[in-house]
């Protein structure tokens, strides 16, 4: 990274990936000068951080341009907080392909504000604003979308959680 004043925990360098094909791509750091810190590539859609200082990573991506999805940074995504653990254990998200729904269930004091669904390129394909709190939601997928893997992002009073679902 040329031209960066200083490397800090807060520094995020946006990466743009242009895929001319659907398939695997390898990402790595070719050369390191004057950097003693760990180096990560973080997928902003899934929240996953990959250590790329000493080894390459292989991602499987669809054809397209990924502008705001990946960043180079110098701290790994933080370990799960108490609220993250509560979300992971007290919520569930899955695709009900027979009824063309995304099913979201929760328990406890989790309040869901909004649910969004993104395709693998990071494009938002559906949004559901949650007005009334209940334990289970059948969220209808109103438009025809292709078969594939999607990311469902749930915004709650305890934070956000993402889950991959398969739409058939």
Describe this structure in words.
By secondary structure, the chain is mainly beta. The protein has two domains: 62 residues, no CATH class; 86 residues, Immunoglobulin-like, CATH 2.60.40. The chain contains one helix and 13 strands. The chain has a four-stranded antiparallel β-sheet, with no helix packed on it. Strands 10-9-12-13 form a four-stranded antiparallel β-sheet. Strands 7-8-11 form a three-stranded antiparallel β-sheet. The longest helix is centred in the middle third of the chain and has 9 residues. The radius of gyration is 18 Å and the shape is globular. The model has no long low-confidence stretch (mean pLDDT 84). It holds the Pfam family Por_Secre_tail. Keywords: Signal. This is T9SS type A sorting domain-containing protein. It comes from Polaribacter sejongensis. InterPro entries: Secre_tail.
Largest beta sheet, briefly? 4 strands, antiparallel
Can you tell me the CATH class of the largest domain? Answer: Mainly Beta
Low-confidence stretches: none
| Continuous helix count | 1
By DSSP, the count of extended strands is 13
Q: Could you tell me the CATH topology label of the largest domain.
A: Immunoglobulin-like
Task: Characterize the quaternary organization of these chains.
Answer: single chain
